[in-house]
Write a structure and sequence with these properties.
It contains eight helices and eight strands. The protein is elongated.
Length: 454
């Protein structure tokens, strides 16, 4: 995920120039966010989780509907089990202690039936149905959280590219200015008004700037890759930003901190739903002490014969049967299993309460840090902008004095270096204030405003 970059690395990322290959699609920040909402893998998976939750509700609801099953069985007892019966049954004159083995069944057996059951009462079913709906609420919260995260990542990546575009204008100005200065100093040297070392100093500065431009062209591709990756866009897709720094409001939306509610933060809402699920789990374990009652019915027929062909005759050898009734299941003793589960649920609820307190403390701290960082970065930006303007003024004055022969070339080079340092500080301050703006809006819960249907 995109994080605040170090000054050294950020400096090179910002030294970029826009190449013509990115001029095919111009996107605003809003368009980039919309594209990310529709294509970023994390958001798409979160949306699929919502569909999964809907299907889970249907699965749970199905347990309360009639359950109907069909059954058919065919058996070939190639070795029918015998049973010992008193011989007197077959021969009245047989001794009483004499037994004979008799096949206990027929070789071919068939059975076909259809059964139905309907839940009349089961406390766990109704609790489970509520839990499935609550799980759907949690998946909705997770979906919103995924969009908020993508909003933060895309916005920061977008702002990074905007800062590089500001750097582009300044670097181009540096390049043109040094090119002019090098040409003028070379002419002065050829006419005996400057020394070779003066030309060399300017040439070094010019070469460094030229190298930066070459490196910047390679860094530009990487900068856009970061933005497109956050959007879920193929890296080969050419794009260009339609907005500039001038289009960005550097102030956070007017917000009364006294009106802030913790529920404005999606993380709090997620934890609240998680607690509701834990409460339902506790309730479910409690209602398991209650009996369950089902209505049952069965209708079928069976047959048995020693002639295989008679199994499929479906004549009077098939004997029908049927019944209906109710089935009561009463839990008596389970080794205190439910009791221990209830203890675990209560401990989980206590842990969630602790997590909620910690989350609220963290939000308070995050807001205080965000307010301070935004104020500091905005103040620093104004100072660095003024420093850059002053450094430019010093450079221009020094250059005029050098052109008039009352200043040295070394002073010009030093002024040029100071101006570049001021530019670098300005780039970093500009980036910092934009990132602080995003962090501030996130801390207030206003970075991403979801719609009711989400």
């Amino acid at each position: 995920m995109l994080k605040i970059l170090s000054n050294s690395w950020l400096y090179w990322i910002m030294l970029v120039s826009v190449t013509p290959t990115f001029a095919q699609a111009e996107l605003t920040l809003e368009q980039c966010l919309k594209y990310g909402y529709e294509n970023q893998v994390m958001v798409r998976n979160a949306d699929l989780d919502r569909e999964l939750a809907k299907a889970r509700i249907g699965e749970t609801r199905a347990d309360g509907l009639p359950q109907i099953d069909g059954f058919a069985d065919y058996s070939n007892y190639w070795n029918v089990q015998d049973a010992f019966l008193p011989a007197v049954i077959f021969d009245p004159n047989a001794p009483l202690d004499e037994f004979v083995s008799v096949p206990f069944g027929q070789q071919y057996n068939g059975n076909a039936s259809i059964g139905a059951s309907q839940m009349l009462f089961d406390g766990s079913y109704f609790v489970g149905l509520n839990a499935a709906k609550t799980y759907k609420d949690l998946s909705d919260k997770d979906f919103i959280k995924s969009r908020q995260d993508i909003t933060e990542q895309i916005t920061k990546a977008y702002y990074t590219v905007l800062v590089t575009q500001v750097a582009l204008d300044l670097i181009d100005n540096n390049y043109q200015r040094l090119d002019t200065l090098l040409t003028e100093t070379t002419l002065m040297y050829e006419n005996g008004f400057a020394e070779k070392i003066d030309v060399n100093r300017i040439q070094v500065q010019f070469n460094n700037t030229e190298t930066q431009k070459s490196r910047a062209n390679r860094n530009l591709e990487q900068a856009y890759y970061i933005l497109k990756f956050q959007m879920g866009m193929p890296l080969s897709e050419p794009i260009q930003l339609a907005e500039t720094i001038e289009d960005i409001d550097f102030t956070v939306v007017e917000y009364d901190f006294a009106q802030f509610r913790y529920q404005d933060r999606i993380e709090v809402s997620q934890l609240e739903v998680t607690r509701s699920l834990a409460e339902l789990d506790l309730k479910n374990n409690k209602v398991k002490y209650l009996p369950s009652l089902d209505a049952v019915a069965n209708l079928g027929a069976l047959t048995a014969t020693n002639v295989r062909g008679e199994v499929t005759d479906f004549d009077d050898k098939w004997l029908g049967y049927g019944f209906f009734g109710v089935r009561l299941q009463l839990p008596i003793f389970d080794g205190l299993r439910k009791s221990y589960l209830i203890q675990q649920n209560r401990i989980q609820l206590a842990q969630i309460d602790n997590d909620m307190r910690y989350l609220k403390y963290s939000i308070d701290l995050e807001q205080e840090q965000a307010k301070r960082d935004f104020a500091n970065s905005l103040e620093n930006l104004r100072a660095q902008e003024e420093n850059m303007e002053l450094a430019l003024e010093v450079y221009e004055t020094t250059n005029i004095k050098y052109q008039e022969g009352i200043g040295s070339n070394l002073e010009v080079v030093d002024a040029e270096t100071s101006y570049k340092d001021a530019q670098s500080n300005y780039f970093n301050a500009l980036y910092d204030v934009l990132i602080a703006k995003v962090d501030m809006e996130k801390a207030l819960g206003i970075l991403y405003q979801h719609t009711p249907e989400e």
